[in-house]
Design brief:
By secondary structure, the protein is mainly alpha-helical. It is built from 21 helices and no strands.
Length: about 525
């Protein structure tokens, strides 16, 4: 398969979702602003958002896809039929667990909300009760998105990557529709309607994946739950994979809880808005690469193609750095104009914009690390090793907690994002060192030659953006068309300078882009 094309397909659909997400966040800033209402919803939304990242985009895929592919590719088996039988066994165990977990979380929503927020900072009993209500409204999304991840994992294994990548579009489209059609002069009412829309979007995503599976000849039957050896193996892989692939999300939960409990109202919103902007390149690059690399590398290793798997991971790292380094420089240096263009109107004040830009700069320092985690962990998961990433994830969470406690008072809303960036950098360093030590990854001559040239090209782009952004600032506070045109001009200038610098410095040639990572894999 062509890794660049597959990543581009997922990235394109993710781009649509992220653009809708930015529209959603802009409307959210306009109708709710940075206040207790926004903080309460974002804390309630953090739990399903974290679970989506841990389960749908991480743990279940990491555990399920290699086992499903092994079944499908077994020359002594019946191919897809055996794979679907395994999927039905997994569903039989997963569904009752999810039902029980949903009921338990609904019952214990008060302590869950307390753990995620520290009961906020000086709120009344009624205000905290409102936050608990929002959590209860979003909790059903956890069960729905977990079922989506099962169906999406099957389709990813069959090279139908685009179907699962399109599902998050429904989440953002639903939330945008709720903001446009059901906003109120009371921010609390608007926040409550957003919480309802979260669970509605989960149902829509499940219906979409179920239809796509049936359209592709995949139909799962409900079985009686049975703890077979294969299901035991799957469960033993899921939980460590959840921590291993979700360290960034767990770190964000810690950061959110500390910010809600120690900082002024609005700080959770600044951190959230900054994270949303930081997630745009992470979603386009990291999730796309991680989604494609895991089944590709696991298939190559299953076929005994160690050299091909090494080549795939080298090119995956090269592509990750080619895209993430300029994004990092741009977000660190140009956070103010970006935040002003997208959020700076309505209830979102100029001070809110400035604080969001500061948090964004702190987050973005770790952007290459966030993405490289997605590139490096398939090297473990494809070998069905989920224990090593979880050990490193636990260590990175300790680093994050210590960093939060040390930085949150002196740096305020910049402290938690910076601690998260440092923790992710520590995590990726440990993953890289271990792969190298085991002989599972060796940076080839092409990667070693290109990385420093890519860094220089990104710095050259940053210099141009820093010199020109001031001239565009007045336009970034105008009407929506003017804001969009000014922001598009800033982004276009950065892309042109980076592309030209990368070619001049020899980081890439024009032919490399079209030839990058051409590798085909048979579809079973």
């Amino acid at each position: 398969m062509n890794l660049l094309r597959a990543t581009g397909t997922i990235g394109g659909l993710t781009l649509i979702s992220r653009v809708l997400g930015l529209v959603r966040d802009s409307l959210f800033a306009r109708y709710i602003g940075a206040s207790f209402a926004s903080d309460a919803f974002l804390v309630a939304f953090r739990l399903p958002n974290m679970f989506r990242a841990l389960f749908a985009e991480g743990a279940f895929a990491a555990a399920f896809i290699p086992m499903f592919n092994q079944k499908v590719a077994d020359p002594e088996g019946q191919g897809l039929k055996d794979g679907l039988a395994f999927a039905e066994s997994a569903l039989a165990m997963l569904l009752p667990v999810l039902l029980v977990m949903t009921v338990v979380l609904e019952i214990f929503a008060w302590p869950v909300t307390f753990a995620l927020s520290g009961k906020f900072n000086g709120v009344s009993h009624d205000q905290f009760a409102f936050a608990v209500q929002l959590s209860r409204l979003t909790i059903p999304y956890l069960m729905l998105i977990s079922l989506v991840s099962l169906l999406g994992g099957i389709l990813n294994s069959l090279n139908k990557f685009w179907v699962n990548a399109a599902a998050p579009i429904l989440l953002n489209a639903t939330l945008v529709a709720a903001l446009l059609l059901f906003h109120s002069d009371d921010p609390l009412v608007t926040a409550r309607n957003q919480a309802i829309a979260v669970s509605v979007s989960g149902l829509l995503q499940l219906l979409w994946l179920a239809w796509a599976c049936r359209h592709n000849g995949v139909s799962l039957k409900l079985r009686r739950p049975r703890l077979s050896p294969e299901v035991k193996r799957l469960l033993s892989l899921i939980w460590p994979a959840a921590a291993g692939s979700g360290a960034v999300q767990i770190n964000l939960v810690i950061s959110t809880a500390l910010a809600a409990s120690l900082l002024a109202h609005g700080s959770v919103t600044y951190i959230y808005m900054a994270d949303r902007l930081n997630q745009l390149p992470l979603g386009l690059i990291g999730i796309g690469l991680g989604t494609v690399l895991l089944p590709t590398i696991s298939h190559q290793l299953g076929a005994g193609e160690e050299a091909a798997a090494m080549e795939t991971q080298n090119r995956g790292m090269e592509l990750a750095l080619f895209l993430s380094l300029p994004a990092t420089v741009a977000l660190v240096l140009c956070g103010e104009p970006i935040a002003a263009a997208l959020f700076g109107y309505g209830r979102f004040t100029a001070q809110d914009t400035h604080f969001t830009a500061q948090a964004l700069a702190a987050f973005s320092i770790g952007l290459p690390s966030y993405i490289l985690i997605k590139v490096l962990t398939p090297g473990f998961y494809a070998r069905q090793d989920t224990k090593t990433p979880v050990r490193y994830a636990m260590l990175s969470m300790v680093v994050n907690l210590v960093g939060n406690l040390a930085l949150i008072v002196p740096l305020q809303h910049m402290g938690p994002p910076l601690a998260t960036a440092i923790a992710s950098t520590v995590n990726v360093a440990m993953l890289y060192y271990t792969l190298v030590k085991r002989g599972h990854f060796v940076a080839d001559a092409q990667l070693r030659r290109r990385v420093p040239r890519l860094a220089l090209a990104a710095l050259a782009m940053g210099g141009v953006l820093w010199a020109t952004q001031g001239q565009l600032m007045p336009w970034l506070h105008g009407t929506w068309p003017v804001r969009f045109a000014a922001l598009a001009a800033l982004v276009s200038a950065g892309m042109l300078v980076y592309g030209a610098a990368a070619i001049v410095l020899g980081a890439f040639s024009r032919n490399d882009i079209s030839l990058l990572l051409r590798r085909r894999r048979p579809v079973s």
